[in-house]
């Protein structure tokens, strides 16, 4: 009965993935997924946006508001192409490919920029004039350089079409980023001014009496009494009025970044089994170093078996990050092994596996598990993992789309399956299950 429920649950997951393949593929090029709902694809790597990238986003938004429809993909490294690395440094071919991918929901202008140049696509329209204009703009390497060059290209394309993008679009981003410094500068000026007033009052009080002037002073005596205490009072008010919002902003940002009290409720895995009830199917594959790896060799410690496409740039890196986070928090002697079975034999080269090891910052307990297509298919079948492959040929380049069940099994130290997590799941869920096995 539990096996049947498992098949139903996983089949439903694969079916859902199939329905939304055009919207959220697990393993295609990330830009084709991201640009479905967004106007600019910057990078598939995590990190904050540079000033140039923010300016590009603002310029594209302004262009679309003015009626000049355009979307932009900046591809700074081969990594940003996901599973279609064959199109690296081929911006014109990739622009046609990406335009075809988005054609079901977007049929307007599409600009692609790589370090070696531009690609442009607009279904049903000639691209000759656009390429003539783009030929006069030099590209370059680096996220910031690409973003700045792309912004320049968007503005010139819009201008040639008679559309006007406000010159302040990029400056607005810079102004927003400098607001905290403006507040700090204002606070410093106010405090310095208040300090000068206080110092002046004190000097005046300590100054020896001057000879009586020939003409009476307009305001004999020192400053009015109220000024003697008002200056430091104003300084205190300035500190509270300006410093408090800055402090609160820092506190809120810290709280948001730490993620405390977010998703803290533990939810059960999709499926779970009692001890000694469901033996985990064994397999013998190779890891990224060429050594054999199997479930049986890890008897005596828990094992997480997951299924990953090494060229995925969407869901797989997210799951890998979560697994790294949970396993990295466990004392080294008690950490479970992670066996990541490949679902894409085209992506099982040592180069691809080591690239992910660096980019995903994988923990030492992570072991890739790769093999021949036939052997991998048997492992998927035994673990009831759905894998779908769709092959397309675009501009002479063969592209393989992989859609698969995003899931992870927890296996106890005796080699029995204890839980199945289907993505998305949360760190505290997996952490709770592993704690029960210790």
Textual characterization of the structure:
The protein contains twelve helices and 14 strands. Helix 10 links the parallel strand 9 (337-342) and strand 10. The protein has helices spanning 2-19, 30-34, 51-65, 91-102, 128-134, 143-160, 168-206, 225-258, 315-329, 350-359, 373-382, 427-437; strands spanning 40-41, 70-74, 109-114, 117-121, 271-272, 284-286, 292-294, 303-308, 337-342, 366-369, 387-394, 397-404, 407-411, 417-422. The two termini are 28 Å apart. The longest helix is centred in the middle third of the chain and has 39 residues, at 168-206. With 438 residues, the protein is an alpha/beta fold. The strands form four sheets. A six-stranded mixed β-sheet has the order 5-14-13-8-9-10, with helices on both faces. Strands 1-2-3-4 form a four-stranded mixed β-sheet. It has three domains: 27-166, Diaminopimelate Epimerase, Chain A, domain 1; 177-202 and 226-252; 271-437, Glutaredoxin. 35% of the residues are buried.
């Amino acid at each position: 009965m539990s096996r049947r429920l498992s098949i139903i649950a996983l089949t439903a997951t694969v079916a859902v993935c199939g329905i939304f393949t055009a919207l959220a593929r697990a393993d295609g090029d990330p830009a084709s997924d991201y640009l479905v709902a967004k106007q600019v694809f910057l990078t598939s790597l995590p990190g904050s946006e540079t000033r140039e990238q923010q300016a590009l986003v603002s310029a594209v938004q302004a262009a679309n508001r003015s009626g000049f429809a355009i979307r932009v993909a900046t591809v700074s490294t081969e990594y940003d192409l996901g599973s279609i690395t064959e199109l690296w440094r081929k911006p014109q071919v990739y622009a046609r490919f990406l335009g075809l991918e988005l054609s079901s929901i977007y049929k307007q202008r599409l600009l692609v920029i790589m370090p070696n140049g531009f690609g442009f696509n607009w279904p049903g329209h000639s691209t000759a004039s656009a390429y003539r204009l783009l030929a006069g703009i030099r590209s370059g390497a680096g996220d910031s350089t690409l973003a700045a060059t792309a912004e320049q290209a968007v503005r010139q394309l819009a201008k040639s079409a008679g559309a006007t993008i406000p010159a302040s679009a990029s400056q607005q981003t810079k102004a927003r980023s400098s607001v905290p410094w403006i507040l700090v500068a204002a606070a410093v000026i106010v405090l310095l001014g208040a300090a000068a007033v206080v110092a002046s009052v004190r000097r005046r009080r300590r100054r020896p009496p001057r000879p009586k002037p020939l003409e009476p002073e307009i305001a004999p005596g020192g400053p009015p009494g109220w000024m003697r205490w008002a200056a430091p009072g104003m300084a205190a008010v300035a500190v509270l009025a300006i410093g408090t919002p800055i402090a609160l902003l820092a506190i809120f940002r810290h709280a948001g970044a730490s993620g405390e009290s977010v998703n803290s409720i533990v939810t059960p895995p999709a499926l779970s089994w009692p001890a000694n009830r469901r033996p985990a199917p064994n397999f013998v594959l190779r890891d990224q170093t060429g050594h054999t790896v199997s479930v049986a060799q890890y008897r005596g410690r828990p094992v997480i078996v997951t299924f990953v496409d090494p060229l995925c740039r969407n869901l797989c890196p997210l799951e890998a990050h979560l697994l790294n986070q949970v396993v990295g928090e466990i004392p080294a002697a008690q950490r479970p092994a992670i066996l990541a079975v490949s679902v894409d034999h085209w992506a099982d080269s040592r180069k691809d596996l080591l690239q992910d090891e660096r980019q995903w910052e994988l923990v030492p307990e992570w072991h890739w598990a790769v093999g021949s297509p036939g052997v991998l298919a048997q492992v998927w079948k035994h673990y009831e993992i759905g894998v779908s492959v769709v092959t397309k040929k675009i501009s002479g380049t063969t592209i393989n789309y992989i859609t698969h069940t995003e899931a992870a099994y927890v296996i106890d130290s005796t080699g029995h399956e204890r839980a199945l997590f289907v993505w998305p799941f949360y760190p505290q869920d997996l952490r709770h299950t592993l704690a029960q096995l210790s």
